[in-house]
Amino acid sequence: MREKRLEHLSPLIMALDTSDLDEARRLADQVRPCVDIVKIGLQLFSTAGIGAVEALRGDGFEIFLDIKMMDIPNTVSSACLALCEHEPLMLTLHTLGGQEMMRAANQAVREHCEARGISRPLLIGVTVLTSFDLLALKKIGIHESIEEQVVRLAKLARDSGLDGLVSSPLETLLVRREVGAGMILITPGVRLPGSGTDDQKRVATPSDAMKSGADYLVVGRPLYRAEDPLGVARQMLENARGGPADGAGESNG
Prior knowledge:
This protein has a single domain (15-240), classed as Alpha-Beta Barrel (TIM Barrel). Helix 4 (73-84) packs parallel to helix 5 (99-116) and helix 7 (146-159) packs parallel to helix 8. Helix 1 links the parallel strand 1 and strand 2 (37-41). The model is unreliable at 246-253 (pLDDT under 50). It is globular, with a radius of gyration of 17 Å. By secondary structure, it is of the alpha/beta class. The chain is 42% helix and 15% strand.
């Protein structure tokens, strides 16, 4: 599925990993020529709440609201409807919440947004966090490989009507093959060649991620820790498009 609202948006999403809304707005503004979508996660949402969505939308950005909702179907559906009123572009659910939860949220969001005449957020499933490795899975009682668990949950999300998935770089190609071309794939853990991995266990370059089937790349620390965030953002876009990592990319937005 490809919504009209997604047309002409840069594939680079900036993760605003801060608790300070003013700082988040400053960081987003630094990369504005290369970034149309910003990611608000639990850290910023826990301090600034829906005000962060309103402020950054007011600044002209589309919002990827990454709070990985997981609860009983009625609770998640009700939370989604409340968030729909603020028209984020994307909203994440944790696929471990199960098919009933995902289907209920999908149906509720579609019906609510159509009735209200507002933009429907794309529901994006999260499978296995990129900070997880095989040992971490075993410690919580999952003895499948990471790939097997990711594919199982990705198919469940597709069959539940979700619009897309968060997929680590190392599983993106596999997930794309399994779920087909219709689902949006968003890939975190992206680094320029030669960069550190921080706490991400499964990483790849922008070029490799896009070649594997990613539609969007989520980047946080490599941008906001850089001396020249806009310069790094341009390198990311250039590399994503198959050019040299030290090239000067152009904005889609």
